[in-house]
Amino acid sequence: MRAYEAEALIIAILEQVDDAHLPEGKLEHTNDGKTILWFGGHGRHLGSATSGDPRTNQARRDPEVYRRDAARNALELEAVYRADLALLESGDSEPNP
Question: Which of 35, 49, 56, 92 has the greatest number of CB atoms lying within 10 Å of its CB?
Fold first, then answer.
């Protein structure tokens, strides 16, 4: 399977997860009017995902950016998993602090 095909399948899977089964974050409203959704020590500014044409400098809010990033992140972490497994199988069993 090619990476772009896997990315499309990951996105399709994410779309099918029921809201009730997603991790619960902590919503914060800041004094400057921003809304942040926190998961542990990592927060996401809601409304900050945008896409558009860089030639015209026209951007629009696009929450789909998060889903595309999630799929790419999944593929990157799979690559890290496979590289780390190959290193372990080559005989390097010590953790790297």
Answer: 49
